[in-house]
Amino acid sequence: xxxxxxxxxxxxxxxxxxxxxxxxxxxxxxxxxxxxxxxxxxxxxxxxxxxxxxxxxxxxxxxxxxxxxxxxxxxxxxxxxxxxxxxxxxxxxxxxxxxxxxxxxxxxxxxxxxxxxxxxxxxxxxxxxxxxxxxxxxxxxxxxxxxxxxxxxxxxxxxxxxxxxxxxxxxxxxxxxxxxxxxxxxxxxxxxxxxxxxxxxxxxxxxxxxxxxxxxxxxxxxxxxxxxxxxxxxxxxxxxxxxxxxxxxxxxxxxxxxxxxxxxxxxxxxxxxxxxxxxxxxxxxxxxxxxxxxxxxxxxxxxxxxxxxxxxxxxxxxxxxxxxxxxxxxxxxxxxxxxxxxxxxxx
Length: 347
Description:
By secondary structure, the chain is of the alpha+beta class. It has two domains: 31-128 and 258-305, Periplasmic binding protein-like II (D-Maltodextrin-Binding Protein, domain 2), CATH 3.40.190.10; 129-256 and 322-343, Periplasmic binding protein-like II (D-Maltodextrin-Binding Protein, domain 2, 3-Layer(aba) Sandwich), CATH 3.40.190.10. Helix content is 37%, strand content 18%. The protein has helices spanning 40-54, 67-74, 88-96, 106-111, 168-181, 183-196, 205-213, 225-231, 237-241, 271-281, 284-293, 307-310, 322-327, 329-338, and strands at residues 13-16, 19-22, 31-36, 57-62, 82-86, 100-101, 124-136, 160-161, 219-223, 243-246, 257-265, 297-298. The strands form two sheets. Strands 3, 4, 5, 6, 7, 8, 9, 10, 11 and 12 form a ten-stranded mixed sheet that branches. Strand 1 (13-16) and strand 2 form a beta hairpin. Helix 1 (40-54) crosses helix 10 (271-281), helix 5 crosses helix 6 and helix 5 packs across helix 14 (329-338). The protein is globular.
């Protein structure tokens, strides 16, 4: 975990078990305290713009794990006002743990579509990303793969790569599939994909694309924004260029999409400033900055995509409410375990 600042919280910081911990709430006027799962380079430009427009200082703790546990441990003494994180599963964990509060804002509700926010205002989507299929340019004919169902087709036996099935990115897709197709059909799909795997699931989304470049497999599930990240990395550009990014259909409903999002903490000591920040993040300028920084799609419909993302073309996003997806996460994890997906082919 790293503690990023242009400005430190006005409290003592102690180091416990190698991680930063804030000693108490920041009560000063003109501040808002943020716990962020997202990396500094993704959010700092829009936070700087927020401060320039409002005069409200932003204090940020960046953490890639244990965010819910930290908020629960701090309880009413937590200094955090706003949480920024990724994936509906993680947003729903905040709700389940009761560490976030409902927010009612006509501004936010006008900016963020209903399908990408909690009906009770306990979380709001900020950007979206699609769960795409990357296909080897020189080994997968155009039009050969058009749906997630195709990954279970025996013709691709030994040619599919995947990160672990219980990763939140895959759990989101499996949850949406359960919502649309039911448990039995989704289980059969998981068994089919497992039978087609080239190797035991592991690694990250990027490592699946690397495996395509190296000829270890021909198809992989990958979030769309990784294409932008790999193209910007000289060491990974060739991986990205070896594959075509496809927007697969889910049983006639379109491509599965997920979100990055925000929530106000239950104990927020600077609630007025927290609301100011959340309303700002839902607006046009922040939507553009945030989505462009990570090659994502703005959640606000009338905000233009970055030139790179626009070059990917249009697709039909599954309109299912993400609350419905979140409600199926437990069933999705159960199926992954039942078919021993993470043990790989032949197990």
